[in-house]
Amino acid sequence: MEPQKSHSTTLHACQTCRRTVLYRCYALIHTCGIMALMYHHVHTLLTENTALVTSLLLLSDVIQAFMWATTTSLRFNPVHRTEYPERYVAKPEEEFPKLDVFICTADPYKEPPMMVVNTALSVMAYDYPSDKISVYVSDDGGSSLTLFALMEAAKFSEHWLPFCKKNNVQDRSPEVYFSLLSRSWTEEAENLKTMYEDLKKRVEYVVSVGQVDNDQFHEVFGLWDHNFTRTDHPSIVKVLLNHETEAMPNLIYVSREKSKVSPHHFKAGALNTLLRVSSVMTNAPIILTLDCDMYSNNPTAPLHALCYLSDPKIISSLGFVQFPQRFQGINRNDIYASELRRSFDINMVGYDGLMGPSYVGTGCFFNRRAFYGPPAKLIKPELDELNPNRIVDTSLKAQDVLALAHDVAGCNYERNTNWGSKIGFRYGSLVEDYYTGFMLHCEGWRSAFCRPQRVAFYGESPKCLADVMGQQMRWSIGLLEMVFSRYSTFTYGFKSLGMLMGLGYNYFTFWPFCSIPLTVYGILPQLAIICGVSVFPKSSDPWFWLYIFLFLGAHVQDLSDFLLEGGTYRKWWNDQRMWMIRGLSSFFFGIIEFTLKTLNLSTFHFNVTSKANDDNEQKNRYEQEIFDFGPSSSMLFLPVTTVAIVNLLAFVCGVYGLIASGEGLVLELMLASFAVMNCVPIYEAMMLRKDEARLPKRVNFG
Ligand SMILES: O=c1ccn([C@@H]2O[C@H](COP(=O)(O)OP(=O)(O)O[C@H]3O[C@H](CO)[C@@H](O)[C@H](O)[C@H]3O)[C@@H](O)[C@H]2O)c(=O)[nH]1
Ligand SMILES: [Mn+2]
């Protein structure tokens, strides 16, 4: 398809990917293949005496077919967009809208305060009028250490921001900038580096002793007395930097009130608090949400987002502009598939051609209005001060403004209001990001996927398998909460979004259910080999070729998606291996945890993923691409190791059978071989390795 002609005034263009036609044709063929397979199963079910096995295979294949349909909806109209920020910059500065940045942190030990500092500094230093930026940091850990670090950051920013702008520095996270040693330093840079290192020492010292010297800053830190705990404390709002006194961004520390008896809704609750506090103080029409590890790597990111968010033709229904999540320090072949290419790139391009990408919790610029009801119907909040269209003309340091800011950060504020249901980030799922984006799309908001050449944000990804599994288990539970909520992607989703986008949203919510086919295909045919019976058609049977075709078709297309969106063959291989491991651990236990949670037998919290990188051995293992099962390998790995062992046994039996009788169970054996190839790192960890990150015997043998 021809690229859209871009006139010199248009700020963005959109182009359909070239693969589209081919993909649509293939979809038709694959659909026929799936229907044939279903016919085959039903026929077998009715005519042969293998009810249990066939039903299990049928169930698995129905789930896989649905999964394939959801993926296919995202291959229906993939698009690539381009922005022209240089045209935006040509505007007079007065026309640049105000920008409120939200940064969430929750635990000073899993999320080191220096990380928060770097993220905050990197966005404060945006190529954007400084006095239009306000950075709000939400600290759910209620930690004086984080506040102390941010006070230091405020002081340092007065040197850092002018330096970046004067020298057109591209890496505006000081940690990144100063770690690039190959530069030839100017004296100015050298001085700043010393200043930064002193700051880092002070912050890290405070973190290591666990408290701030109370005598020195009694006025501020006096709040942290012996009654203060992270789960029980009053609301704190501190203006650390303020552009009324100088041409600097605002920097505001917020720790909402917590009490053990009020629900706080984890990150969604924190974000809603920031929505209100920022409304009261600055009420910028554009909001950027970030996790504390996601520092800015591209100083022009806001301009890219504004190419969409300022376009009068689309703004009335444009809810948000999502940037991909990218991670720093991923090892060469990405052994844990934590780049999540399918989630953060491939699928996004697909959604983008429908209604727009889902919200992924970080690196997203919102239209503030989107949090207050559908495009055509503003839902008024309970206070006039929270109205998204209000123009703020008072000082954010005025007494009444500060008093109200503390009020709206109170833990009982949301009682009997629309917050979390009709207004703001939505409650009820541990994947508050996916859920909120879904609800906004259902209301009629659209979104755009923005992927500038220079990556806009970099974050941390888990560096050991146990952490990856923990994260994905939390997601699985959150996704199941969505499936079984009133606004299920299955029912409400299809009704509100139509067929393609509805299917697209079910792609993720369906993840946990994939543990069923993975378990069945990981055990059943293998047991069949061991017992010497067949579950799949023999190689002389024409149905044999249908299996070959479907397997190859699905895998080759998956690989092609991967390569077309910038992946490599090795990363794809690791990605599909992780899919198997995740399916047998995170998704599997996610279903169990969710069931327990629904029956009130367990409470699963938002366990924050650790971003601290201080374990050198773990770091080394990661860099050498050695699977790290963590020091205390949990039950989580039991299904994976069981499947690995069963497959190895089946493989040996199968090969033996083939040699002994000349004719074997070809499909079953092919499947077992495929699984064995995937399980190599697991065998190594079980049998060959001696280091502390191997799998302990306890997990090997139950
Ligand atoms: O009670 C809480 C719990 C978490 N967070 C913050 O939420 C963010 C995300 O937490 P993290 O542990 O990093 O989760 P991930 O699994 O890495 O995050 C992905 O998945 C989450 C949903 O499960 C989304 O919120 C994230 O944006 C998305 O990157 C962090 O900044 C936390 O500080 C809070 O503010 N309050
Ligand atoms: Mn994260």
From TrEMBL:
Biological process annotations from GO? cell wall organization
Per the record, the major location class is: Golgi
Q: Where does UDP-alpha-D-glucose bind?
A: 110-111, 140
Where are the bilayer-spanning segments? 21-39, 492-510, 516-536, 543-559, 579-596, 636-659, 665-688
Question: What positions does the entry give for Mn(2+) binding?
Answer: 267, 291
Active-site residues from the entry: 140, 433
Task: Spell out the PANTHER family in the cross-references.
Answer: X-BOX TRANSCRIPTION FACTOR-RELATED
* Protein name in the entry: Cellulose synthase-like protein G3
Q: Which species does this protein come from?
A: Eruca vesicaria subsp. sativa
